[in-house]
From TrEMBL, chain A:
This is Cytochrome ubiquinol oxidase subunit I. It is a multi-pass membrane protein. Keywords: Cell membrane, Electron transport, Heme, Iron, Membrane, Metal-binding, Transmembrane, Transmembrane helix, Transport. The lineage of its organism: Bacteria, Pseudomonadati, Pseudomonadota, Alphaproteobacteria, Sphingomonadales. It is found in: Cell inner membrane; Cell membrane. The chain crosses the membrane at residues 15-36, 57-78, 98-120, 127-148, 192-211, 223-240, 323-347, 359-380, 413-432. Its main location: membrane. Residues 441-463 are annotated as: Disordered.
Automatic annotation (TrEMBL), chain B:
The lineage of its organism: Bacteria, Pseudomonadati, Pseudomonadota, Alphaproteobacteria, Sphingomonadales. The gene is cydB. InterPro entries: Cyt-d_oxidase_su2 (IPR003317). This is Cytochrome d ubiquinol oxidase subunit II. Keywords: Cell membrane, Membrane, Transmembrane, Transmembrane helix. It is found in: Cell membrane. It comes from the Bacteria. It is a multi-pass membrane protein. NCBIfam families: cydB.
Amino acid sequence: MTDADTALVLARAQFAFTVSFHFIFPSFSIGLASYLAVLEGLWLKTGRSEYLDLFRYWVKIFAVAFAMGVVSGIVMSYQFGTNWSVFSDKAGPVVGPLMAYEVLTAFFLEAGFLGVMLFGTAKVGKGLHFGATLMVAVGTFISAFWILSVNSWMQTPQGFTTNADGQFVPAGSWLPIIFNPSFPYRLVHTVIAAYLTTALAVGGVGAWHLLKGRATPQVRRMFSMAMWMAALVAPVQLLVGDQHGLNTLEHQPAKVMAMEGHYEDHPDGAPLVLFGIPDDEAATVHAAIEIPKLSSLILRHDPNAPLKGLKSLPKADRPPARIIFWSFRIMVGLGLLMIALGMWSLVARLAGRLYDWRWMHRLALALGPAGFVAVIAGWVTTEVGRQPWVIYGQLRTADAVSPIAAPGVGGSLIAFVLIYFSVFGAGSWYILRLMAAPPEPGEPDPRATPRMAAPQAAQRGEG
Amino acid sequence: MGVDFDLTVVWAMIIAFAVTMYVVMDGFDLGIGILFPFFRVGRERDAAMNAIAPVWDGNETWLVLGGGGLMAAFPLAYAIILPALYTPLIAMLLGLVFRGVAFEFRWRDPGHRALWDAAFCAGSIVATLAQGVTLGALLQGVEISGRAYAGGWWDWLSPFSLLTGAALLISYALLGAGWLVWKTEGRVHDDARRFARLLLPAMLVAVLAVSAATPFLDGKYYERWFVAPGLFVTVPMPLLVAFCALMAWRGIGGGRDEQPFFWTLGLFACTLAGLAISFWPDVIPGRVTIWEAAAPARSQLFMLVGTAVMVPLILAYTGWSYWVFRGKVGEHGYH
């Protein structure tokens, strides 16, 4: 490999590493912010203390996750320039304004109201505090809206033209850029994924305490809420994901070919490859287990519909199927398990045994982190599936990289790996420790935790 | 010199505004981080941390607006500056990681509080030094070929960039001390006053050194400072600086608690105005003008609509948040 090739690989590794790590936190905080708003709203409406206990329990976890999301997110806003400067120069006039809107309409909103949400219980009225919580929740959603619009534009670019400097510039209205073809699907699929991730994490914590014999009203309440969410949303996610896939087939067929493990053209019905070992060099799937015609039935709703394979594309234009084939199966497999958990919880609920069936609790506990894994797997599928393009069909990843020598990119990658694993490892450990303790009746206000350790401050924090 | 008052100029002013907001608002957060080891372990450090805990995240967001705005309005500048300052910028980001998580982690893990306090301080120092070095490296000039950075990844390092790094370290520390004089009471307040008394002369020396060195860098700074219209700012500047410094000094010695902070802000305003003279009308001094780097009008206009609507709103609710946490912070959080 030449130095430039090495630098490219290192820059890609760095982006993949920093964005995957970052993505874990917002996929939790988007759902958790909404969950907190629901809990606080229910407490204000019903006056039942277990909702307040749960709010105070989860807001501490939210604060830690949010801090890690913020600091890893700032890194992302600079990664575009440090490592992908050609992309920034060329695509800046199109994606830059969308990201600026994200800062203006989302980041400031979240950050501005977070202080009141975390530290303001004793300083503002209940209504205003609830308003602050709502603003934080809305901010996380608006943030997802803009950044997914940017990502979707890179997947399915439209509404642009190129100028004399080779820059992508808006051709006319901004609406086709923002609402590009894959955006609505990606937005719905990703936001639901964030809600599901949070539901599974909350459900996992609830299941843990149920298994430990702590079936307090608070634990029951959060487990029940989480299982409702899983039962209702996981099947919806399957349908949304299917629609997203059909949209991808229309706009990025190569990605679907790689997901399906289709190298050959199938003029009269393509099989569904359940498992196998894709080999990009030989352009074949070893040890494939296939169901004839099923892929055509799923993707075209016709068992005999023709589907093209990766061999129909020049080798330089093919995404690496060996990664996408598996990341896609991990995502779908976990999604099916989530649906199974949701159904099981419904049966248990009907039988009046929601808090008693230990094997269901064990499954819920095992699936506690499943949302995070599925989100990352889905992200890998869509991002690696876009390769070898950074802007699909328009700008190759290899042509978008910064002119930084390999030692520079490698050195910073090592620094990111070491620091992220230690710092975010510690943060995740703190979150797990908070989760290991059950929510208590009269759960203390975050204001009253060590931050303001004196007992009189805790009492003033009430109400 | 006539100025075409066009969209690009407006955007240059918006970016300058975002950078100014960042420097002022995260400046005192970082300054408190820099001074952190000099406060006694326990209640004094808790109070210093609590003085900024509810607002640091919003303050830091101005950095994202500065970076994101630069990419959107001046993509060529973003694409040249970030690779040119690769190492200091990555160091800054990693410093901000440590600084940011320490706000939560030090309360979550009392057993390792000393460790997270050290991370808070070291992160603040690294981020500040990196920002100062970035400024110095930009002023001394970056090598460009075509539409890309053409230098190496150590070009930023020079005696001048180290000088600007040290100057910013002192300046943020003074701003942080000023904030603590205003927002705290008791021992931490008295300590902050003591630190400010040492830091104010140090900042003046540092700013003087940077100002003396700048006109002799390989740029057009000499012209910009000593030829109209820059001259009209250059001539009264020493008087303004001297006045702010004198008032800050009196404020530190006694008087109302908010005075040291606001007069230090006056000093920041003077130095930032000086920097504006040095840069104008370039976005990369001596190399790329704001018009050369500008995104097309359609991009700038689209964002301008959002900025015109959102920035006043942001300032309003940020102001509200500061109002909620007004007054002195006690050792257990805001009263």
